[in-house]
Specification:
Blueprint: H1 4-22, E1 46-50, H2 64-72, E2 76-80, H3 86-89, E3 94-98, H4 118-129, E4 133-137, H5 143-146
Parallel strand pairs: 1-2, 1-3, 3-4
Length: about 190
Amino acid sequence: MRSVLPVVLVASMLAGAGVALAQQVPDTTFDTRIASPAWPEGNGPRLVIDEAHCESHTMSGRYRPFADLARHDGLRVAAGTRRLDAEALREADLLVIANALGAEDMSDSAAERPAFTPDEIAAVEAWVGAGGSLLLIADHSPMGAAAPGSGRRSASTCATPTASTPRPVDARRPRSRSRPATASTRRT
């Protein structure tokens, strides 16, 4: 029995690693067809998925099912491959920025630098103010640190929350009523 335990543990760890890696791959078998699309094919709003700021979520990669779903709903989907300025934003009704980074390599400390220039931030804010729709997604660090500039002057803010237990938890003591770490949206 004792000789089986290490094999079971290693097999469990490898299976868990496989699941973790699988979470970073798009499900290309997902059926994105829509029975009753909101718009006739290619006649809906123009959706641009930003790919110019070191995002790993692209319309041909991890966001492929999302792009396919939007296309099947009639949206006109395109990759945003250039800096965000008034000219680039004229080509979009909806803009998705998903996990922009300040550098390609997430492990590089430069990844936490702002992903957008002040001019890009101003252009996006003016575009949103004029009626454009922005979906800004910033997951765990370093993405949250790279994206806050895009919400600083607008109605949103980004936080980089982390949860930790400062001391070992004693099951005999009552649990505290502290609030969980969350990012909030508020007017500034």
